[in-house]
Design brief:
By secondary structure, the protein is an alpha+beta fold. It has three domains: 8-197, Histidine kinase-like ATPase, C-terminal domain (Heat Shock Protein 90, 2-Layer Sandwich), CATH 3.30.565; 213-335, Ribosomal Protein S5, domain 2, CATH 3.30.230; 358-567, 2-Layer Sandwich (Ribosomal Protein S8, Chain: A, domain 1), CATH 3.30.1370. The protein has 17 helices and 22 strands. Strands 5-4-3-6-2-1-7-8 form an eight-stranded mixed beta sheet, covered by helices on one side. A hairpin with a 5-residue loop joins strand 1 (41-47) and strand 2 (53-58). The termini are far apart. The model is unreliable at 228-234 and 340-380 (pLDDT under 50). Bound molecules: adenosine-5'-diphosphate (ADP) and magnesium ion. Magnesium ion (MG) binds next to helix 2.
Length: 567
């Protein structure tokens, strides 16, 4: 075929295909328009998986009569006017593509009213062309009705999944926006049945209750507003929202919502940052419930990456990443108590069984399965001076403090000590290095090899001296002193498999600490235990290991007295 410029209809079909992938994309675009129009109430009605009918009704500003037809032109928008406006986007829409794209693949009716205009405007479109126009009574706001989606595009129609699947995608979109905009009342009705209704109270927890139910809502922790360096809100980035306590872990990743300047985005690395903050707190295979709102100046983020606008790029991705991770981690650590025995056995129910459960629950579910109201919250604080009394099961150190008994997980405690030690050595650029007597050949897969090459310099900072040695092999001449004699090749492989990218250095430190720490089951001498406890006392966060697991549990004098019926 000779080269030709495509005709208008083909171009609009191609463009529409990018914006309108499935019925849920239509819902997303229409709801975004309603939100941009300042609506405080948005109702979404769906029939037949959204293929038969989608109607979105809002009480926003409406479209002035003279502009309504223009709104269906491709690249017609009221939200930006010049390229420089792309730098400061705070609206959800800005590409002027949605209405024209939807009209290209469905029948559309628009009724819109603006405060002050005598009557509303009505438009009917078919195949992207206006076939009906007129006036209709309408209070301020807009109603868009979309019918017979993809009827003329059998290929797309065939590609859609079952009605139930399409409905669930739609419910997902509406739920996310309900979480992002708690001040807006959302109603979603599917085939005549209301499936979601939020009160529009402005309280995130109310939206969470409606979207995820009471059980989840009762276990949400509020992120304390956190700026760049923690605590200070003066910075340009603000992290707010709520995170689920580890005990409401879910089997799917879908319970994590990320909003950037109130836009729902998907961002693998940020999602990973959140998951990582839960590391060691959630059971393996479980994922967190979290609603994370990032507010930052629009110049700091590029939303013009893809027509669906769900992808964003940050100018300083590393800073964004660590701010999110820090915010989530601190919220979890500060609000996750040091477990106490009273959470397991109340005096009335004392029997040997719950106590046994306690001894084995170390390192598992930190909340020990009680509702947060009943959970005493012990904020992270420094440790009192402890006197070592012995070792239990070659895994736990028994110690006495001014207020009772402490059981310390030797591996977790050592990890905490080493973690802070490595961070300290690194910040002073004084990593202790151990030259190997003979260079060791280190074999890697092609992918690990690439990742290794990309990380030479960073690895050198940690004390690794590595050079290429033929295909798939590297020579290691020196390793960090802490890892000498340990399974550093295993640690390296694990790290290389986890890829580079955000948080790599922290992962490296955690991994080094973990691989050099004493294991459970290792017998320690009294001196070693004393040394360990003394060093733990000096750490900044003695109560948790770098993965977030508790390092100890505490049985206070008061609890002891109660347990023995002395008080
Ligand atoms: P964009 O949202 O990127 O500007 P759209 O095609 O979605 O592009 O919408 C085009 C224009 O139509 C918007 O810029 C806005 O002015 C107007 N519009 C669309 N939907 C609504 C609505 N629900 N309320 C008020 N104005 C709307
Ligand atoms: Mg839009």
């Amino acid at each position: 075929m000779p080269i030709k410029v495509l005709d208008k209809e083909t171009v609009s079909q191609i463009a529409a295909g990018e914006v309108v992938e499935r019925p849920a994309s239509v819902v997303k675009e229409l709801v975004e328009n309603s939100l941009d129009a300042g609506a405080t109430q948005i109702s979404v009605e769906i029939k037949g998986g959204g293929v038969s009918r989608i109607q979105v009704i809002d009480n926003g500003s409406g479209i002035p009569q003279g502009e309504a037809e223009l709104a269906f032109n491709r690249y017609a928008t009221s939200k930006i006017a010049s390229p420089s406006d792309l730098e400061s986007i705070l609206s959800l829409g800005f590409r002027g593509e949605a209405l024209s794209s939807i009209a290209a693949v469905a029948e559309v009716e628009l009724v819109t009213g603006v405060a002050g205009e005598a009557a509303g405007t009505y438009l009917g479109l078919k195949d992207g062309v206006i076939i009906n126009r007129g006036r209709k009574g309408r209070s301020a706001g807009t109603t868009v009705t979309v019918k017979n989606l993809f009827r003329r595009i059998p290929a797309r129609l065939k590609f859609l999944k079952s009605l139930a699947t399409e409905n669930s995608h739609i419910a997902n979109i509406v739920s996310r926006y309900a979480l992002a905009f708690p001040e807006v009342r959302f109603i979603l009705s599917i085939d005549g049945r209301v499936t979601l209704r939020t009160p529009g109270s402005g309280e995130l927890i109310d939206s969470i209750t409606q979207v995820y139910g009471l059980e989840v809502a009762q276990n949400m922790l509020e992120i304390k507003a956190l700026g760049w360096e923690g605590g200070v809100v003066a910075s340009s980035l603000l992290v707010t929202g709520m995170v689920g306590s580890p005990k409401v872990g879910r089997s799917s990743r879908d319970y994590l919502s990320l909003f950037v300047n109130r836009r729902w985005v998907s961002h693998r690395r940020l999602a990973w940052a959140v998951e990582e903050a839960y590391h060691g707190l959630l059971m393996v295979g479980k994922h967190p419930v979290a609603i994370i709102n990032l507010s930052l100046p629009p110049q700091e983020v590029d939303v013009n990456v893809h027509p669906t606008k769900t992808e964003v790029r940050f100018r300083d991705e590393q800073a964004t990443f660590s701010a999110v991770q820090k915010a989530v981690r601190q919220t979890l650590i500060e609000l996750t108590p040091v477990p106490r025995i009273e959470e397991v056995a109340t005096p009335r129910e004392v029997s040997s069984v719950p106590r046994l459960m306690l001894w084995t629950s170390i390192g598992g579910d930190v909340n020990l399965g009680l509702p947060p109201a009943a959970t005493p919250q012990t904020p992270a604080q420094s440790l009192p001076v402890l006197r070592v009394m012995g070792q239990l099961l070659s895994s736990y150190i028994i110690a006495e403090g001014p207020d009772g008994l402490y059981l310390i997980d030797q591996h977790a405690a050592h990890e905490r000590i080493l973690f802070e030690q490595i961070e300290d050595q690194r910040s002073r650029r004084e990593m202790e290095i151990q030259m190997l007597l003979e260079p060791v050949a280190f074999e890697v897969s092609p992918r690990q090899g690439e990742s290794l090459k990309a990380q030479y310099e960073k690895l050198a900072e940690f004390g690794f001296s590595i050079e290429p040695f033929g295909e798939g092999t590297f020579l290691v001449r020196a390793v960090p002193a802490l890892l000498a004699g340990r399974d550093w090749p295993g640690m390296m492989r694990e790290l290389l498999d986890s890829g580079g990218g955000e948080g790599w250095e922290e992962r490296m430190v955690i991994s080094m600490a973990c691989h050099s720490a004493v294991r459970a089951g290792q017998v320690l001498t009294s001196d070693e235990m004393r040394e360990m406890v003394r060093k733990l006392e000096q750490t900044a966060l003695p109560h948790t290991c770098p993965h977030g697991r508790p390092t100890m549990i505490h049985l206070s004098l008061g609890q002891l007295a109660r347990e023995f019926g002395r008080s």
